[in-house]
Design brief:
This protein is mainly α and 87 residues long. It has 2 helices and no strands. The longest helix has 38 residues.
């Protein structure tokens, strides 16, 4: 079966589904077209500046440790690869 034949079969099957009304129209669903918004706005609590400063320092330290770990692992793998290539 060629790609054109496959495309025609898909279109024919979709047309048959619509004719037989196996699919319900969107307006028949509960609520119709209107969307009810149940979204509640989340209000962030007030945080004092010294707590924010502590959090900032802590994340910087963590990011620095991660960077050091990544670079050391990278250098070790680079040295191992270079060793394997030359010997």
């Amino acid at each position: 079966m060629s790609s054109i034949g496959t495309m025609n079969a898909v279109l024919r099957n979709n047309r048959n589904l619509l004719r037989k009304k196996r699919r319900k129209p969107l307006k028949d669903f509960v609520g119709g077209y209107e969307t009810v918004s149940t979204y509640k706005v989340y209000v962030l609590p007030e945080v004092p500046p010294h707590v924010l400063r502590r959090i900032r320092i802590k994340t910087r330290k963590q990011n620095r440790r991660i960077l050091i770990k990544k670079t050391t692992v990278g250098f070790v793998t680079l040295i191992i690869l270079l060793y394997l290539l030359y010997f």
